[in-house]
Amino acid sequence: MEKTQIMVASNGDNENNNYDRMKELKAFDETKLGVKGLVDAGIKKIPKIFIALTDDAHIKKNLDSYSESSKEFSIPIIDLGDITKGDDQRRKMIIDQVISSCENYGFFQVVNHGVPKSLMDEMLEKVRMFHEQPAEARAALYARNHDKKSSYLSNFDLFQAPATNWRDTYYCRMAPVPPKPEEIPIFMRDTITEYSVQMEKLCLELLELIAEGLGLKRNYLKDMECGKGWDFLCHYYPECPQPELTFGISKHSDADFLTILLQDNHISGLQVLHKNQWVDVPPVHGALIVNLGDLFQASISFYDNILITNDRLKSVEHRVLSNLEKPRVSVACFFNGTHLEPSTRKYGPIKELLTETDRPKYRETTLYEYLTTHYGKGLDGESALTALFKF
């Protein structure tokens, strides 16, 4: 990736009498062709709706500085290969690595995780095929309806976020109730179904490791239904003529329990905020990236005293840079429970992690309430957890 400085537009640049942002947003949305449509049209300058604002200007965006920080920090890579050998000492070592990574970074990569590399490569290729198919085929699936289980759109928060991101997304809700087979494009149907099975297995294994690391029973987080429902967000980041002006995805933390990310094997772009510096997460062929989301943080850090003991495990802000080279693809699997299913279940404190002196930090919430807030506000630099649910 070309190392450039992320430039930002001041709020004043968007405030002139001749600029109608809402009109431009609607015009872009109505094409149903996404960012890929702009690139196919041969644009040389990005539309104003994509220019990043100064909402996170306090964080350095100079990629030369970031390169120096990447030499100092690196996201841990954890080998899960020995976890099935029945060696308790080896299992404890892996658990310690997972908890330490969550404490210090909020992110880690896993290798020898059981998901075939061939399937991972096939999944990335099918996502690329989806986004590079004829425009009319993509447009037929374009929808801004979060209730559809299989759809295509550009920026779920297009009309809420302060700046539009340079990406398009194929969305597929795979569990607890998957879409009908005919709702998934035929050329990716078998691949995404097989990949979904592998993601469920890996998620449940990771939840067991985290639960044990917190001193809970092995099935505790599984029984909380943290891994019962999941979505695929299959992102496509077209080459950008002005990558210094916009983001692939702006700064955010994930609105789920756990995320497993398959990123492009060749093009970097993902960065994690660590000690107030943006650190690159370079592609490692065969590796999967894991991070905790806001809903997991709310469950394990519900009380102030947990800040000293178990609030070590937090959802961490991250972002994706745009690039000049060529399109980048990724597949994010978001484990977010059963938020689209009727449920009055509220998520609050894990009682086994509390003491008598603890006091509330976040109020209880249902998955539906939390995610409705998340989708309603968009990626504006603040998580829904802080915006609505913190006392």
Automatic annotation (TrEMBL):
The keyword Repressor does not apply. GO terms for molecular function: dioxygenase activity; metal ion binding. SUPFAM superfamilies: Clavaminate synthase-like. InterPro entries: DIOX_N, IPNS-like_FE2OG_OXY, IPNS-like_sf, Oxoglu/Fe-dep_dioxygenase_dom. It comes from the Eukaryota. The keyword Acetylation does not apply. PROSITE patterns: FE2OG_OXY (PS51471). PANTHER family: OS03G0690500 PROTEIN (PTHR10209:SF859), OXIDOREDUCTASE, 2OG-FE II OXYGENASE FAMILY PROTEIN (PTHR10209). Belongs to the iron/ascorbate-dependent oxidoreductase family. Residues 228-337 form the Fe2OG dioxygenase domain. This is Fe2OG dioxygenase domain-containing protein. Keywords: Iron, Metal-binding, Oxidoreductase.
